[in-house]
Automatic annotation (TrEMBL):
The keyword Ligase applies. It comes from Lederbergia ruris. Allows the formation of correctly charged Gln-tRNA(Gln) through the transamidation of misacylated Glu-tRNA(Gln) in organisms which lack glutaminyl-tRNA synthetase. The reaction takes place in the presence of glutamine and ATP through an activated gamma-phospho-Glu-tRNA(Gln). It comes from the Bacteria. Keywords: ATP-binding, Ligase, Nucleotide-binding, Protein biosynthesis. Residues 1-438 form the Amidase domain. SUPFAM superfamilies: Amidase signature (AS) enzymes. It is an enzyme of class 6 (ligase). Coiled coil: none annotated. The keyword ATP-binding applies. The gene is gatA_3. This is Glutamyl-tRNA(Gln) amidotransferase subunit A. The active site is at K52, S127, S151. Belongs to the amidase family. GatA subfamily.
Length: 446
């Protein structure tokens, strides 16, 4: 029934929302039939899901929203997909994103512009805009996204849903098409915190295919959702409520803090003095990693190949020029430049040093506090097209989510009010591998 409902809803609204790139209707229905009367003890059995199109799914087209992979059918499942399949989750389809996860609006997709279900003139955020919109529009109860600099939390915030970026190393990246390997994490987007905790429980854990996953038991996050946050110590960085943060976001956080105080938590203002270097360091580091990761799309092994090249150089050049969109090319050029000899020390190395300082800022705070709280984004969703000519402003607006990736910490966005009919999000950041506390606070608040 759930699968039928989900497919029906997609038929009803996806013409307008445009969250899905591929709907695997037949297979989903077949799998649902096979489950009838056969459901094991998995709480997620029979639940339909939308999967971001940079997570590889065996025999199911995986495009990264790029012309480069328009007709790419993977021959294996990502680890998270194996885990979801094992839990009898039913993949309904693949959802839209910014091309190769580079962007904040889902407008860089080579195929379609996804709309914000709360107001179709606005973007759903990005890069996991399809994942957030599909959940917000009631097309699927949950989706998976990926977050390199905010791509789960920012669209969750823009679409009024719950999005979790786990600690770096918590969830396997095997089968996630890499953007910036030292920052990427997969995580769940859901309507509420409990559902989110169930999905993370299912996808987390050590994986022999990803040596950056960590051998730590995955707690039963749902059992920690007691509603009790008495004595919890909250840090609120002044940089997260200061310059560049819109009034609506600031006020929403201040009233959220009142709610949390009412539940027995206390908060104090702190400082993340190096967070001002986060955005520039992030763009240097993520673009450098992207320039290396995306070298594999050469028109030879897989993906788009230019027709009738004259020679090998032309094959590479034309396949990449024709296959990649503008934003991807910009990042590859920036990354290649930053890594080139003579510039490496000035850019890449400096950015790595800033990254260490940003992480240390958080380490210092977490010696005294349990969580860090602030807005997820400085503003609500942008109008469609608003950011296309103003990329620097768009990049700068990621200032609240990016430091969390640079430090490898877990962070969640939960809905915390509206302004002018558009949702706002509250960001709760935890200690490394302490998703448990992040979920407990988010659940007590929602
Ligand atoms: N918006 C950021 C960027 O454009 C983050 C993207 C992401 O997290 N994948 O790089």
């Amino acid at each position: 029934d759930l699968v039928d409902q989900s497919i029906k809803r997609i038929h009803e609204v996806d013409d307008q929302v445009k969250a899905f790139l591929t709907v695997d209707e037949e297979n989903a229905q077949k799998k649902a039939k096979a489950l009838d009367g056969q459901v094991g003890d998995s709480i997620l059995a029979g639940i339909p899901a939308g999967i971001k199109d940079n997570i590889v799914t065996k025999n199911l087209r995986t495009t990264c929203a790029s012309k480069m992979l328009e007709n790419f059918d993977p021959i294996y499942d990502a680890t998270v997909m194996e885990k979801l399949n094992g839990a009898q989750v039913i993949t309904i389809g693949k959802v839209n994103m910014d091309e190769f996860a580079m962007g904040s609006t889902t407008e860089t997709s080579a195929f379609q512009v996804t709309k914000n279900p709360w107001n179709l003139d606005f973007v759903p955020g990005g890069s996991s805009g399809g994942s957030a919109a599909a959940v917000a529009a009631g097309q699927v109860p949950f989706s998976l996204g990926s977050d390199t600099g905010g791509s789960i939390r920012q669209p969750a915030s823009f679409c009024g849903v719950v999005g979790m970026k786990p600690t770096y190393g918590r969830v396997s990246r095997y089968g996630l098409v890499a953007f910036a390997s030292s920052l990427d994490q997969i995580g769940p987007i859901t309507k509420n915190v409990e559902d989110n905790a169930y999905v993370l429980q299912a996808i987390a854990g050590l994986d022999e295919h990803d040596s950056t996953t960590v051998d730590k038991t995955v707690p039963k996050y749902t059992e920690g959702l007691t509603g009790d946050i008495k004595g919890l110590k909250i840090a609120v960085p002044k940089e997260y409520l200061g310059e560049g943060i819109g009034q609506a976001s600031r006020e929403a956080v201040l009233s959220a803090l009142k709610v949390l105080e009412g539940l027995g938590a206390t908060w104090e203002e702190v400082s993340l003095p190096h967070s001002k270097y986060a955005v520039s360091s992030y763009f240097l580091l993520s673009s450098s990693e992207a320039s290396a990761n995306l070298a594999r799309f050469d028109g030879v092994r897989y993906g788009y190949r230019t027709p009738n090249p004259e020679n090998l150089m032309e094959l590479y050049k034309k396949s990449r020029s024709e296959g990649f969109g503008d934003e991807v090319k910009r990042r590859i050029m920036l990354g290649t430049y930053a890594l080139s000899s003579g510039f490496y020390d000035a850019y890449y190395k400096k950015a790595q040093q800033a990254r260490t300082l940003i992480k240390q800022d958080f380490d210092n705070i977490f010696e005294k506090y349990d969580v860090v709280i602030g807005p997820t984004t400085p503003t609500p969703a942008y109008k469609i097209g608003e950011m296309l000519d103003d990329l620097v402003t768009m990049y700068a607006r990621d200032l609240l989510t990016i430091p969390v990736n640079l430090a490898g910490l877990p962070g969640i966005s939960v809905p915390c009010g509206f302004t002018e009919g558009l949702p706002l999000g509250l960001q709760i950041i935890g200690k490394h591998f302490d998703e448990q506390t992040v979920y407990r606070v988010a659940h007590a608040f929602e």
